[in-house]
């Protein structure tokens, strides 16, 4: 029971008075004083009781008010926590107790540690082509006499990409598709142009060094060697169903997809330089036996590329670059010792695997060099790109034959009707594809992005005609018009119309007409993530 200071002082005063008064039992005045004092003491006790009850009531009221305030704060904290949880669920990943974060960037399933230093993701692409040719050989000497219409699963890839400890990156991708309707290699029933292995990517890259204010990647394995602008552009982002023949012929010598390679690239926001040592493509035969009588040793080459943005602004950019490729050790037959090299390509469509221009197997090859220049740029929704190639083939392996010189190139341009533009990718020194501002939706009203494109390409595989050691590979010119519909960030439909003209004579010493003309229409369904 709590007693205030005032009440205690009053009680002490009363007791003092009582103690100070002498006992006077014999007088009536003394009895009266005592009675008065007792009455005052009783009143004081009543006041003390009243003060105590008031103090107790005040304490209970204060406690009740504090409890209500605490409850209100707790409810507010719960509301904030729920709001934060809802926001995190809506805007980004939540790390479960295990520390694993699952995300879907561009609809690619990705699992990462909470610190984002270790990740693994599933990647895939499907390019399914269908179409046909209106083909006209110039004479009975033309080969082939017909091209087949049909379908082709051009690419059907699935694999894993990821990183360890932030700086170690890897890729393992298998391609179940192919560049022809048949099987590659030398086995019975094989068709020319078929793939010999499905391992498209199997490499390791280290990116821990960052010298000179840029990023350095040291990598090796089976990979897409980033040689030439067209090859550095992903097949998901190229404007047409196939790259231009001049570039394909160059990359097939010692670069391109499925290629074993080791090298490095350094880049920043505006400059890129890289160099790679290259070997054979994955699955290439490099043994000789009764089963593989045409086995050949592994080839060796190098590629170098330097490129970057010369100009860039809010609505424009301009890219320039140069490339060089060296075939240092050609593949040679382990039985006969012959060193050969073939330059060829199909007419920028892969429904039929037949090449219309080809040097055939050039004998006595000791090496080769390819030099090229590249340029590209954007102005708003307009995009343009071009490359030119010079090929030099050395023929001094067994006899001092004069070297062969060929050339080819292309120019292409596109315009995005819906206003989007091609963004620059500094990591590859190339331009990426279109990301629709309004993806197609039957209910939401979006129609995706629409793009029209055109290209003229040419390649000349003739040299030293009218001589016994000349090559009559033919001159091919192809005009292509395209309409691309980017449904969303993962799906694209491509429609290509091609008109081709092949001028070719029967042989280097026979000027008979073996050329042809063609028109073709094809469509691609593309799904990628």
Strand content is: 35-45%
**Over all CA atoms, what is the radius of gyration?**
42 Å
Give the overall silhouette: elongated
Mean pLDDT across residues: 85
The class by helix and strand makeup works out as alpha+beta
Order of helices and strands: HHEEEEEEEHHEEEEEEEEEEEEEEEEEEE
SSE arrangement:
Elements: H1 5-20, H2 28-91, E1 100-103, E2 110-113, E3 119-137, E4 150-164, E5 168-175, E6 199-206, E7 215-223, H3 229-232, H4 245-254, E8 259-267, E9 271-281, E10 300-312, E11 316-329, E12 340-341, E13 344-345, E14 357-358, E15 362-363, E16 367-379, E17 382-395, E18 401-416, E19 424-425, E20 430-431, E21 449-463, E22 471-486, E23 491-503, E24 505-507, E25 510-513, E26 516-528
Antiparallel strand pairs: 1-2, 2-3, 3-4, 3-26, 4-5, 5-6, 6-7, 7-8, 8-9, 9-10, 10-11, 11-16, 12-15, 13-14, 16-17, 17-18, 18-21, 19-20, 21-22, 22-23, 23-26, 24-25
Helix pairs in contact: 1-2
Q: What would you say this structure looks like, in words?
A:
The protein is of the alpha+beta class. It has two domains: 5-89; 100-275 and 297-528, Beta Barrel (Porin). The chain has helices spanning 5-20, 28-91, 229-232, 245-254; strands spanning 100-103, 110-113, 119-137, 150-164, 168-175, 199-206, 215-223, 259-267, 271-281, 300-312, 316-329, 340-341, 344-345, 357-358, 362-363, 367-379, 382-395, 401-416, 424-425, 430-431, 449-463, 471-486, 491-503, 505-507, 510-513, 516-528. The strands form five sheets. It has a 16-stranded antiparallel β-barrel. The protein has a two-stranded antiparallel ribbon with strand order 12-15. Strand 21 and strand 22 form a beta hairpin. Helix 1 (5-20) packs antiparallel against helix 2 (28-91). The longest helix is centred in the N-terminal third of the chain and has 64 residues, at 28-91. It is elongated and about 160 Å long. The model is unreliable at 1-29, 78-92 and 180-195 (pLDDT under 50).
């Amino acid at each position: 029971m709590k007693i205030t200071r005032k009440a205690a002082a009053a009680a002490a005063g009363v007791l003092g008075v009582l103690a100070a008064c002498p006992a006077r039992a014999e007088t009536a005045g003394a009895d009266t004083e005592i009675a008065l004092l007792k009455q005052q003491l009783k009143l004081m006790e009543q006041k003390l009781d009243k003060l105590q009850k008031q103090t107790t009531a005040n304490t209970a009221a204060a406690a009740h008010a504090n409890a209500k305030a605490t409850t209100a704060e707790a409810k507010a904290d719960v509301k904030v926590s729920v709001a934060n949880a809802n926001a995190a669920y809506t805007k980004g990943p939540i790390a479960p107790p295990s520390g694993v974060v699952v995300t879907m960037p561009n609809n690619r399933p990705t699992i990462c540690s909470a610190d984002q230093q270790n990740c693994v993701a599933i990647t895939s692409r499907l390019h399914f082509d269908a179409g046909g040719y209106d083909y006209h050989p110039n004479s009975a000497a033309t080969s082939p006499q017909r091209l087949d219409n049909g379908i082709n699963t051009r690419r059907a890839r699935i694999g894993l990409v990821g990183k360890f400890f932030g700086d170690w990156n890897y890729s393992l991708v298998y391609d179940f598709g192919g560049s022809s309707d048949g099987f590659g290699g030398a086995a019975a029933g094989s068709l020319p142009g078929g793939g010999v292995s499905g391992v498209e990517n199997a490499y390791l890259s280290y990116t821990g060094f960052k010298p000179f204010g840029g990023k350095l990647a040291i990598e090796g394995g089976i990979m897409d060697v980033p040689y030439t602008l067209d090859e550095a552009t992903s097949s998901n982002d190229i404007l047409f169903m196939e790259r231009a023949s001049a570039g394909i012929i160059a990359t097939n010598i010692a670069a391109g997809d499925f290629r074993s390679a080791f090298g490095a690239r350094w880049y920043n926001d505006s400059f890129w330089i890289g160099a790679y040592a290259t070997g054979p493509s994955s699955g290439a035969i490099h043994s000789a036996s009764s089963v593989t009588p045409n086995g050949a040793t592994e080839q060796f080459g190098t590629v170098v590329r330097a490129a970057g943005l010369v100009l860039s602004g809010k609505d424009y950019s301009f890219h320039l670059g140069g490339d060089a490729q060296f075939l240092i050790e050609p593949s040679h037959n382990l039985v006969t010792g012959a060193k050969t090299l073939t330059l060829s390509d199909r007419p920028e469509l892969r429904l039929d695997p037949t090449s219309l221009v080809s040097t055939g197997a050039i004998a006595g090859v000791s090496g080769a060099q390819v030099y090229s220049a590249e340029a590209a740029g954007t102005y708003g929704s307009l995009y343009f790109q071009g490359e030119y190639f010079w090929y030099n083939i050395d023929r001094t392996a067994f006899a001092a034959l004069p070297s062969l010189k060929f050339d080819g190139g292309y120019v292409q341009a596109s315009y995005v009707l819906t206003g989007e533009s091609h963004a620059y990718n500094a990591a590859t020194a190339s331009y990426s594809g279109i990301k629709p501002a309004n993806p197609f939706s039957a209910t939401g009203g979006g129609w995706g992005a629409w793009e029209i494109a055109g290209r003229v390409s040419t390649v000349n595989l003739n040299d030293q005609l009218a001589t016994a050691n000349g090559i009559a590979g033919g001159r091919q010119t192809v005009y292509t018009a395209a309409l691309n519909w980017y449904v969303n960030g993962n799906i694209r439909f491509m429609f290509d119309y091609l008109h081709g003209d092949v001028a070719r004579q029967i042989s280097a010493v026979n000027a008979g007409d073996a050329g042809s003309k063609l028109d073709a229409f094809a469509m691609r369904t593309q799904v990628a993530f």
